[in-house]
Design goal:
The protein is mainly beta. The protein has helices at about 55-60, 145-155, 160-165, and strands at about 5-10, 15-25, 35, 65-75, 90-100, 105-110, 115-125, 125-130, 130-140, 170-175, 185-195, 200-205.
């Protein structure tokens, strides 16, 4: 994964505000990456209407090396705006890289109290860029559920209440090979509110017992 973000921007591109912004050349195969036991977080990703297995079931099916946790500190210090304003776009970008040419499916699920409430499915083919195979999803619209959730969260009176809500809100992104259905990458995301007026993140490798 090279990029995973969520943002709002004016349609004239005069400004953009990032709620979350993972934009990195981090080596996800780094053996020294800090590890988190999947038992500590799997209950936050336990049931999906699509019938797809829970995070723990996906992990057990493997390969375990494809599973990660990202903790985001969300920047809610955004410009005041009507969520339905026609001159504001709410979107997200994803970018991946592979060593061989694949056609991938990207499933992004928002979960509340461990249950999936909304899912976006995207299919992506690679483009060769300077000898690298890049899968790039740009300016994909955020769904109405997510936009509404952001504004309801922002309207809460203090950070403690916001974090209480976010304790039960998670996102799971699952990337698979469209031909074989093999898991290529699975990223479980948890959230807190940033107190620095800037989005931040930490990446961990998920491991089993």
């Amino acid at each position: 994964m090279l990029k995973f973000n969520g943002y709002m921007e004016r349609t004239d591109r005069s400004w953009r505000h990032y709620f979350i912004d993972l934009n990195t050349e981090t080596d996800f195969s780094d053996p020294n990456m800090e590890r988190i036991d999947i038992e500590k977080i799997h209950d936050k990703f336990r049931e999906f209407p699509s019938g797809e297995g829970s995070l723990k079931e996906l992990f057990e099916a493997g390969p375990s090396s494809a599973f990660f946790l990202v903790k985001f500190w969300v920047d809610l210090n955004m410009p005041n705006s009507d969520p339905k304003a026609s001159d504001i776009f709410y979107g997200h970008d994803n970018k991946y890289e592979s060593k061989e040419k694949l056609h991938i499916k990207v499933s992004t699920k928002a979960c509340s109290f461990g249950k999936g409430v909304v899912e976006k499915l995207q299919s992506v083919s690679p483009v060769a860029v300077d000898g690298r195979l890049i899968y790039d999803v740009e300016k994909s619209p955020l769904c109405e559920y997510m936009v509404s959730f952001i504004y309801k969260l922002k309207d809460l009176p203090d950070t403690k209440l916001m974090n209480n809500v976010l304790e039960n809100f998670t996102v799971l992104q699952h990337v698979t090979d469209m031909e074989t259905s093999e898991t290529l990458l699975c990223v479980a995301c948890v959230f807190e509110v940033s107190e620095t007026n800037q989005s931040q993140y930490s990446i961990y490798r998920l491991v089993g017992q």
